[in-house]
Structure formats: structure tokens, C-alpha cells
Amino acid sequence: MNLWREVMLVAGKDLRIEARSRVTLYQVLPFGLIVVLLFAFALDPSRGVLARVAPGLFWVAVLLAALLAVSRSFQVETENAARDGLRLSGLDPAAVFLGKAGAIAVQLAVLEVALGAGVAFLYDVELRSVGLLVAAAVAATAGVAATGTLYGVLAAGLRVRETLVPLLLLPVVAPVMLGATRAWEAGLGRAASDGWPWVALLALFATLYTSIGMLAFGSLLEEA
Amino acid sequence: MPLVVRLRSAVCLLGRFPALAGVDLDVEAGEVVLLSGANGSGKTTLLRVLAGLHPLHSGTGVVLGHDLSIDRRGARRAIGLLGHETGCYDDLTVRENLRFAARAAGSDAAASDAVLERVGLSAQGDVAHGRLSAGQRRRLALAVALARNPRLLLLDEPHAGLDAAGRAVLDDVVAAAPSEDRTVLLASHELDRTRALAGREVVLAGGVARFGVAEPPTSQTSAAKAEEEEVRAG
Questions:
Q1: Which of A10, A84, A88, A219 is best to mutate for the B interface (most B CBs within 10 A)?
Q2: Structural domains in chain B plus CATH codes
Q3: pLDDT band, very low/low/confident/very high, at A45 (cuts 50, 70, 90)
Q4: The domain containing residue A161 runs over which residues?
């Protein structure tokens, strides 16, 4: 079986599990929407603050929700010693990494669409440069999914997994937070051209962590 | 007959504890070998070392031609392991779990349906793993191991949790292994049942194989005595 078939096999397995358990739909998505809603209550909408800080709040909500998605992705491998099954499967570790990251990215993409709609409605922002916003979201999602998968497997075998993943992941994805916020500020404003260098930075980050993940995931899975 | 397993002075540490403290073991292709010994004697660790799930900390090990100290993953595609847990996903059905394992190992989906029939789980094909009884989970774990069409089948307390019909299925699988070009190592405390299935018995005590290479037990009595000594020694 070639690499991409193995990637699709793993991603399909994770997405099927997610479709059955509906954790993203019933827990992660409501969590993200509550975060967006709380910001709306906390910051006075009448003074235009929300519209100005909407990109940052959106990406903070996405990152917090991503922590839940990453933890869930490795929790299913812990139950019934499924991780041993995965190790014994004979699948290429790089394919397992790409498959799990791909499944997390799909869940995050669904989440971003829902949270984006929530932000546009609650924060009264206008989506001007859709192409830039989508490109930044794709690159940022790939980066978060890749780093989440890498640090998720690192903490997978530990009892402190739930608290360790945020501690490891949030500092590492700070550049994604920064780049995606700047790109979205440009996309929501009138200077879209200012946003593309940030998209390039996000793409570089995603490429870097995807490459590291493909190389290191096998060893980390063995040691987890 | 070619050797499927060859261990020399194999040591595996779990933390600082030497779970295997210098095991020598040869297993030829088509053999059915029983691993016996008291709790904590290293049976499970030995099976996990052979499956490449635990590392060798010293000594040498070759499984299906792959050197364990260099390439632990190499032989995995040709190994089936029935461990204490199923290694399956609660939210996937029996058939989905089985097909995932089969496709990952390069087998086709049709073969996995045949295995489902063989272990008597056809009627539960669309039931989620999380809703199976303990015995049905055990059968599924056996099916997953077989769906990979392994050349080396590692069974850890395989009869535990199975009903009479399930035990009969398992016994058939083990008995048919040599004719299916399959080698079996099974660790068990149910010695009366498994001695009848095995061609040879290796007794583990304190992480060491007593009758591994040069001196296979010739009677049930010698193995039983060794186990009794182990139990008395604590």
C-alpha cells in the first residue's frame, strides 16, 4: 500500500470515529462558540472594540478548541491499547502522522467555518478579502494540526496528557496565532496585500512542522 | 526447518526491573510453543519483545529475519498479537475494526469477512466494539490478529474470557496453524488445555527460559515440577 492510501486509511478511521462519537459537534464546537460569546459579553460591542480585535479572538477560540481535538485524537488511541494495534499495524509512521493530522485539520476546518460565522454575526465584521482569509486559515490550520499531532503523541502515554498538551502546544503555536491574526486583520480591513507575507510565514511553519512530524512521529509513537 | 525466532541472552528492562533477564529461545517455522511460568515470570514481556513493542536492552533477537536491535518494526506486518486488550476502537464496528487492521497489513477486505466467520462473529459484524461482551471482544482480537494473515501468531492468555465455543474456535486456530504455514507462541496458565495444543513447552522463571533451546521438556511432569518450584520460590 502506498503512502497516500495509508494516510487516507488512518484519516478515514479517525473521522469515522469522530462522526460516531460526535465529540467535535457536541463538545468542541459548543466550547468554541461559548468562548466567542464570552468575549462578546466581556468587551463592549458598542465602542467598536470587538470588530478591531475579532481576528485575535477568533484564533484564540480556534486554538483552545484545537487543544480538545488533539487530546481526543490521542485519547482514542489510548483506550483498549489501540496504540499497540496502530504500532503493530505495519503502517508507515509518516502516514499515521499525516492521517491523524489530516483528520484534526478537517475537524478544525469545520470548527472555523462555524466560529467564523459566529464572529461575523456577533462582532459585526465584514469579510472583505475572502481569498486571503481562506488561504491564511488553510495554512494556519495545517500548522496547528501538524504541531498538535506531534505534541499530542509526545504526551500520549502520560497520565498528565490532558494538562501537558496545552502546556507544550500553546507556546509552540504562538507564531501561528500571530501570523493568522495579522493576516486576518488585513483580510478584514482594506489592505489585503499586507496579509500575504503572513500567509507565507504560516505556510512555512506548516511545512516545517509537517516535515518534522513525518520524520519524528515513528520514534515518538514507539516511546509514548 | 528455518528459525522464525532466535533469542540469545535477551534482556528487557521495564523501568529498572529486568522482566527478561537473559532469555535464549529458538522457534522453528510451523512450531506451536507453549510459554508457561508463574505470574511475573516474563511471558507477556517476551511476547511483546518478539512483536517489537518492547525493546531489547541487551542480547540479540531475530524475528522472521529481522534483527530486533536494529529494526523492531520490520517484522510487524507478518506478526499477529492477541494481547490482554483488543487494540480496537470502541466507536468502530466489529467489521470496521477488522477491515482497518486487514487493510493496514495489506490484506483484502474479503479475507477479513472470512476471518469473521471463522471466529463466529458474523452476526455481530455491525455492532460497535464498545458494545461487545468481554468474550466477543476476545474473539474480535483473535480475528484482528488472523486478518493480518500472520506468519507468527503470538497469543497471550488466549483462553481468558472465552466461553466453551470460543475456546474451541481458538483451539482450532492453533491446531491448524502448522498447516497454514504459521508459527504460534502462546503464553498461558491453563496448562492442561494448552499442553495438548503445543508441540513444546518453554518454562519462564524470573525472566529466564529454563527449557528454551537445548533442553525442551519431555514430559508434563518436568514442566509442572519447574512451575511448582517457581511458585514455592516466590
A1: A88
A2: 3-233 (3.40.50.300)
A3: low
A4: 3-223
| Percent of chain A topping pLDDT 90 | 62
CA gap A221, A52 in Å, rounded: 42
Mutate to test the interface with A, among B49, B98, B103, B137 (most CBs of A within 10 A): B103
Domain count, chain A: 1
The pLDDT assigned to A160 comes to 74
Inform me whether the C-beta atom of residue A6 falls under 8 Å from chain B C-beta atoms.
yes
Rounded to a whole number of angstroms, the CA Rg of chain A reads 18
- Which value does ipTM take for this structure? 0.87
CB A170 within 8 A of CB A107: no
pTM of the model: 0.88
- How many beta-carbon pairs under 8 angstroms link A with B? 76
Does A30 touch chain B if contact means CB atoms closer than 8 Å?
A: no
Nearest-Cα distance to chain B for A86, in Å, is 8
